[in-house]
């Protein structure tokens, strides 16, 4: 096994590693991440190839990073942004008591920037219009069957399949992974334009989200989900989410809302609306249960 590349990075702000990187984790069984006492592992694709990153706390506000694989240099260079160094919360001020509670509960929260569209885009497309359980099952299937085994010393860790690997998946294998035709077509369209979509990280903001939406099947919800993770977009609201308007409405105005009402309720946080939503989650705000959950569909049985 090759020796890893390493770097020590010092941060001058409170940092909760798990909380900052939690948006990149798709369920407790995510094959691309592993959380262990005192350290976190993350396997990802890069333009240079697969990479595995290990992050460990060291003394004096230092994070020790080790990386393996062809993409090791790229992921090491991205450690500061990944851990929120480029996140700028200037201009953000809680306008509701519940948001203030969230700020107090999550003092080590920053918005992460993975610096790469592809991995988070695949996961977001899989989450379109299905339950998280369905999407995360398909994510596990794709990574384990078509992704790269993560380089380095950890077993049972995989990267997402890269664009070439996605294009090579045969029709019956999509079905076996529980992925319907609409999401399959969107993934294939994204794979065909993957290189140009990475420019969204440079454009950022609304321009970056607009670029993503040029792909058929990618709308505002998917673009926002990618923006939140790929470049830490503080204002990207997941409009079109089944639960979010109810969560925001119940927390801020005491009743469920639709998307338009949600955006009005979040207007005091213009420029930081996603940040406000993250603090609502940190405050423990969840969607009230008024009806049974949707059944989990298994497209492999159709």
TrEMBL record:
It is an enzyme of class 3 (hydrolase). One of its GO terms (molecular function) is DNA-3-methyladenine glycosylase activity. It catalyses: Hydrolysis of alkylated DNA, releasing 3-methyladenine, 3-methylguanine, 7-methylguanine and 7-methyladenine. CDD domains: ENDO3c (cd00056). It comes from the Bacteria. The keyword Membrane does not apply. GO terms for cellular component: cytoplasm; protein-DNA complex. Keywords: DNA damage, DNA repair. SUPFAM superfamilies: DNA-glycosylase. Its EC number is 3.2.2.21. GO terms for biological process: base-excision repair, AP site formation; DNA alkylation repair. This is DNA-3-methyladenine glycosylase II.
């Amino acid at each position: 096994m090759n020796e890893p590349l390493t770097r020590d990075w010092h941060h001058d702000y409170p940092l909760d590693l798990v909380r900052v990187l939690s948006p990149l984790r798709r369920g407790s069984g995510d094959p691309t991440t592993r959380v262990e006492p005192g350290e976190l592992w993350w396997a990802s694709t890069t333009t240079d190839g697969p990479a595995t990153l290990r992050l460990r706390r060291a003394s004096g506000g230092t994070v020790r990073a080790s990386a393996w694989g062809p993409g090791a240099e790229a992921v090491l260079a991205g450690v500061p942004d990944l851990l929120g160094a480029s996140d700028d919360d200037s201009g953000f001020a809680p306008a509701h008591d519940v948001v203030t509670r969230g700020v107090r509960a999550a003092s080590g929260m920053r918005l992460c920037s993975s610096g790469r569209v592809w991995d988070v885009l695949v996961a977001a497309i899989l989450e379109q219009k299905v339950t998280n359980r369905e999407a995360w099952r398909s994510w596990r299937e794709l990574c384990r069957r078509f992704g790269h085994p993560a380089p380095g010393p950890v077993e049972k860790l995989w990267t997402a399949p890269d664009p070439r690997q996605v294009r090579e998946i045969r029709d019956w294998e999509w079905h076996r992974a529980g992925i319907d035709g609409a999401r399959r077509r969107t993934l294939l369209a994204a794979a065909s334009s993957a290189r140009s979509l990475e420019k969204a990280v440079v454009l950022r903001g609304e321009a970056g989200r607009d670029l993503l939406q040029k792909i058929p099947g990618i709308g505002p919800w998917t673009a926002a989900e990618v923006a939140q993770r790929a470049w830490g977009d503080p204002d990207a609201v997941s409009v079109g989410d089944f639960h979010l308007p109810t969560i925001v409405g119940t927390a801020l105005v005491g009743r469920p809302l639709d998307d338009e009402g949600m955006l009005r309720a979040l207007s005091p946080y213009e420029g930081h609306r996603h940040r406000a939503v993250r603090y609502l989650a940190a405050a423990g705000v969840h969607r009230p249960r008024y009806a049974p959950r949707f059944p989990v569909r298994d497209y492999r049985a159709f």
